[in-house]
Amino acid sequence: MEIDPALLEGISLAGSLDRQIDKPPRMLPQNGTLQALSQRRPKAVMWVQQVVSGRFAPSAEETIAVSKINHGVRPVAVWDLPTRVLYGALTMRLEPLLPAVDRGQAQWAAFKRAPLNYEGSYIVATDIASCYQYIDHGLLMDELLIQAGEHAAVNTLGDLLSTVQGRTYGIPQQSAASDLLAEALMDRLERTLLRRGIQAGRYNDDFRFTCRSWSDAVRAIETFSEETRRLGLTMNDLKTITWKRSTYQRSLDEAEDLRRQIAADAQYDLTLFEFDPYGEEVASQPPDLTDVDREAAARIIERWANVGGRSQIPARRIKEHRALLDLLASALVTLETEPRTDLELLEHLMRMLRFARQMTPAVCRYLAGLADPAPAIAAFDKLLTTRAYLNDWQSWWLQSAIASNPAFGNGEGAKRRIEWVRAALDAQAPTPRAYAALTLARQGQIKADELLRLYDRTGATARPLLVAAIALTRPSTRISSAVIRDNPLHRWVYEWVLTGA
After folding, report:
1. pLDDT value at residue 287
2. Helical H runs in 125-244?
3. How far apart are CA 214 and CA 482, in angstroms?
4. Disulfide-capable partner of 210 in 115, 178, 332, 489 (CB 3.0 to 4.6 Å)?
5. Secondary element (H or E) of residue 305
6. Across residues 447-464, what is the average pLDDT?
7. What are phi and psi of 302, to 5 degrees?
8. pLDDT band at 347, cuts 50/70/90?
9. Is the dihedral of CA 41, 42, 44, 49 positive or negative?
10. Buried (b) or exposed (e) across 96-107, using 16+ Cβ within 10 A?
11. Do residues 333 and 282 touch, judged by C-beta distance below 8 A?
């Protein structure tokens, strides 16, 4: 694809690179190779500009299957660094001219209560199935041109998406840039519904309609389905529910009362945190938590283990389980502030990796903060003996949390752990596969020649991880030059590893 030099002068590659380094996606492990750029940002920006100038051939998109609540799977895209920086910079150019992305606990709570502010006997709750995955590039670019103009930036953005993804639909998830683009298209859908006489409220791709009668509710659902199809999207039939007004309000009240009751029983302060409305992540962490706060968080996790730490949830406890899931992420953030070795808690966390898989990032951040990794490794050994299924995404997270410590490759159970990492070399996605190679290099369990063979079979997106692995083997100058001379990023990563990072 060709990029206009004048456009490159008008976008902030430096600002986009800063976002990549300082605010990585929280549902993916931090890519340590980005730290190699932290002290080289001006040089990195110059390199990215050279790569994307003129004729630019971005690498094909790589997809990681990220676990969602209730056994769902979210396909999260991984792009090579120059492509990510360009994508972010183009979107930053449009940002002041597009609807703002305003998401958080307060906005989610207001969204759920908003239908009760209007007259009507029925309330419809619905959303769009796999929204980001199926956003049509052409329709998205049309809306961006209407809202922002900026033809050069918008057209380049459309070309970039279709080139990287090899199709004409879909935008990458876990990206602030994509959140902004999706908001523009969802705002268009919301406006259309309002013009068609539907009292609609929206949070991201979740919608609520207040309807005067059952017939109005049916019409609202059919209209929503029709308008989503016009945008190349699909209404999520499984999540479309029509409530009587009183039942909807009672459901909200009961859920909030149950969360408050559970928090009160555990002496847990609900005012300290923002909850992710999708029950998967907490964005911020308050300072100066006390021992009382951490003990309360541990009680929340223990209660979850008693209710949800199994394959089947009793019907009478499903609402309690949902409320506990809402509290889990913030409880784990609390424990991160001063992680202590608690063997019973570690057992609960291992069960969470099986039965609340969406909590894997929060679990691994806690494990990574332990002063003594030995208890976590021992708990992980027990998990391995159960032959629990851990997907590539979870394997990547667990390696980043506990496998970098030398203790991981020593002592009783070391052979089984190393075999588990070796099995990850067969991962479908290149980046988890490359991270497994890096883990083996850290443990001295892989040779430079094998890493070179992997390097040749791996694309530009995951190669920096393999360069780091090769550097750890302290190879000959001949071998090191075979990878670091491919591009400056590889050289910077190699030098960063040699400094002991």
Report:
1. 56
2. 137-148, 151-165, 176-195, 214-230
3. 69
4. 115
5. helix 291-308
6. 95
7. -65, -40
8. very high
9. positive
10. eebeeeebebee
11. yes
